[in-house]
Design brief:
alpha/beta; Rossmann fold; 7 strands; binds nicotinamide-adenine-dinucleotide
């Protein structure tokens, strides 16, 4: 059974990692996908893979900090595919540094991409989601649930994403729109590669046991996003699901 047959999904951050895996997962379950990012090479590759999976695909540049680009892309998606069923807010940036080193500009930039971007995309998409009785899936993080050393800006942005998710869930639930989030732990993507933590980080602060046998890639998060966006998640609203192998269990 293809859970997304006849559904139209808009995915941000689709050029790599969790965004790419999500676009592919939803495409392979029958969705038409409108995918955006600022990294056009990676985005084109994702689009090709989605096409190979048999999906109708459109891709375009959209900086999630640019309200005009957001509004024109949401409009273009609805123009092309006739409606919008699901918005997946996945684009994000990581900044890990000592508390005292993080500048106010860096702090604002992280909030701008991770939190304000999620807000602006949701605001632009909601009129269409109300029409389709669709849903939003946001990408929070375990850093929204437990302190993350060096993550003052990042963890704060994700805490905001979690709060925003619950707000939208209760404000729009009566209109048939659900809003949920995933909280990935450490997932192997470009974001968590070399250089993610400061060179002189105190590794004792970062050690937290992950009970499962091995680390996982972005597909595990994509599968959870697919569950939340699909009819299998039809009574899940305002929820966050940890995808962290039990790290915070
Ligand atoms: N990888 C992890 O361990 C992990 C853990 C928790 C949460 N997350 C979250 O998952 C999401 C995806 O991260 P990922 O691990 O796939 O990283 P990634 O770096 O592979 O992908 C992030 C994507 O977002 C895009 N992006 C960045 N700024 C943008 C902007 N202004 N406008 C549009 N696109 C922009 C990038 O070009 C990139 O393609 C992020 O929100 C991240 O915070 C990741």
């Amino acid at each position: 059974m293809e859970r997304f047959e006849g559904k139209v999904v808009f995915v941000t951050g689709a050029a790599s990692g969790i965004g790419r895996a999500t676009a592919l997962r939803l495409a392979s379950e029958g969705a038409s996908v409108y995918i955006v990012d600022v990294a056009m090479d990676g985005l084109e590759e994702t689009a090709k893979s989605c096409e190979e999976a048999g999906a109708a695909v459109a891709f375009a540049r959209c900086d999630v900090t640019d309200e005009d680009e957001i509004r024109s892309n949401i409009a273009a998606c609805v123009e092309k595919f006739g409606k919008l069923d699901t918005l997946c807010n996945i684009a994000g940036i990581l900044l890990l540094d000592h508390f005292g080193n993080i500048t106010a500009d860096q702090f604002r930039r992280v909030l701008e991409v991770n939190l304000v971007g999620t807000f602006m995309l949701s605001q632009a998409a909601l009129p269409h989601l109300i029409e389709s009785k669709g849903s939003i899936v946001n990408t929070s993080s375990t850093s929204a649930l437990a302190g993350m050393p060096y993550g003052a800006a990042y963890g704060t942005s994700k805490g905001g994403v979690s709060a925003l998710t619950r707000t939208i869930a209760v404000e729009f639930g009566k209109q048939g729109v659900r809003c949920n989030a995933v909280n990935p732990g450490s997932i192997q993507t470009a974001m968590t590669g070399p250089g993610a933590v400061p060179e002189d980080a105190d590794m004792r602060l970062l050690a937290r046991a992950m009970p499962l046998d091995r680390a996982r890639g972005p597909e595990v998060v994509a599968a959870t996003i697919a569950l939340l966006a699909s009819d299998d998640g039809s009574h899940i609203n305002g929820e966050e699901i940890r995808v962290d192998g039990g790290t915070l269990a």
